[in-house]
Amino acid sequence: MRNKYTVLVGALSAQLTIAGLYAWSIFSTAIVDERAWTDDQVLITYSIAQFIFAFSTIFSGRLVDKKGPKITLIIGGILYGGGLMLSSLATTPLTLYLTYGVISGAGVGFVYVVPLSTLIKWFPNKKGTITGLSVAVFGGGSILFKEVISFFLENNDVSNSFLYLGIISMIIIVLGAQFVSLPKGYEKTVLLKTENDFTTKEMIKTTKFKKIWFMYWLAVIPGLLVLGAAKNIGLDANLGVAAAASLVSILAIANASSRLISGSMSDKYGTLNVLKGVFIITIVSLLSIGLFSDVTLLFYVGIIGIAVGYGGFLALFPTYTNQQFGSYKYGSNYGVVYQAYGLAALSGIFIKTIAGSYTNTFIISAVAGTIGLIIAFSLKDKEKLTN
């Protein structure tokens, strides 16, 4: 027997588990200390994982539309947990790029789309709220996994920590998959396409899709960089080691809270209106930390604001995609839109390498965010789409 709350628990338990990705900075500092690899070598692992995570949603989105959420979750659990276990054998950065970056990254992509595409079918009148809850669990779960990973690293070396995390993750995700399904009778209605529904081919021909994709790319660059290198950024800003490590939890709370609040606000005030507000918060925060990083209070306000903006974007763009292009092929459609996130994952480390410092990177990202805000103002929430 299935009811929407059973499905909710099953889906969110899997979503919570892949949140270990956002606690990467805990692993990264341990790897640098234990193996003497450079910070950039280790950060590239995270960037690859984020890129593959996004890229794999093209395939996982199609799979969940065709075969359903259960099989998609099981595959995701095997990939994510298996990649972590294989990472325990990695002795070079290149090997870690393959095991954690590619295999575990793909697993995250297969798990991530299931709650987004499945739960809105169980809660059709609360799309913003349920999407916000789903992505909030993903973002906020890093608080839990910061502690889990830290515990493993305090009692084991990096290799065994990867192994234990992989075993636990695979079990939780595969178990959660057993409780996830589509609403009864949904399979009979899923083939009914309304005039407001777009296939993926139809969607990518629209001007609105191109605007949304470009806007998404610009929006999440700073948040991805900050969450992946939180501890390093804190150390770069001359915070103590303990204070720098605490940024992981602080940013996770800001990230998760923003996802939940933004999703709920979109149901009340309109997704596009909230999206514009989140862009403004992000731009102001980037300028704050970029221009006044030596002021501790402004540093914390700025970096928390970036996490708030990032969380908001991750809640709002899935909802906006569904509103504009329909539920008919939502899994596939959002998988394509989500490729902007993958490009952003690589863009952040590229910009940081070129800019030479986090401070310059934040200022450049503020300019990119301003362009995204301009695009947002060029969109209309109730605009009728045409090919």
Question: How does this structure look, described?
Answer:
The protein is 82% helix and 0% strand. The chain is built from 17 helices and no strands. Helix 4 packs antiparallel against helix 5 and helix 10 packs antiparallel against helix 14. Residues 383-387 have low confidence and may be disordered.
How does the SSE layout of this entry go?
Layout: H1 4-17, H2 24-35, H3 39-67, H4 69-87, H5 93-122, H6 127-155, H7 158-177, H8 186-189, H9 200-204, H10 207-228, H11 230-236, H12 241-269, H13 271-291, H14 296-325, H15 330-337, H16 339-355, H17 358-378
Helix pairs in contact: 1-5, 1-6, 1-7, 2-3, 2-6, 3-4, 3-5, 3-15, 3-16, 4-5, 4-7, 5-6, 6-7, 6-12, 6-14, 10-14, 10-16, 10-17, 11-12, 12-13, 12-14, 13-14, 13-17, 14-15, 16-17
Task: Describe this structure in a few short sentences.
With 387 residues, this protein is an all-alpha fold. It is built from 17 helices and no strands. It has helices spanning 4-17, 24-35, 39-67, 69-87, 93-122, 127-155, 158-177, 186-189, 200-204, 207-228, 230-236, 241-269, 271-291, 296-325, 330-337, 339-355, 358-378.
Mean pLDDT: 85
What is the CATH fold-level name?
Answer: Growth Hormone, Chain: A
Total number of strands: 0
Amount of helix: over 70%
The assigned CATH architecture is Up-down Bundle
User: SSE string, helix = H, strand = E?
Assistant: HHHHHHHHHHHHHHHHH
CATH superfamily: MFS general substrate transporter like domains
> Count of DSSP helices?
17
* Global structural class: mainly alpha
Give the count of structural domains.
1
Low-confidence stretches: 383-387
CATH class: Mainly Alpha
Distance between the termini: 42 Å
What's the alpha carbon Rg, rounded to whole Å?
Answer: 20 Å
Biggest β-sheet description: none
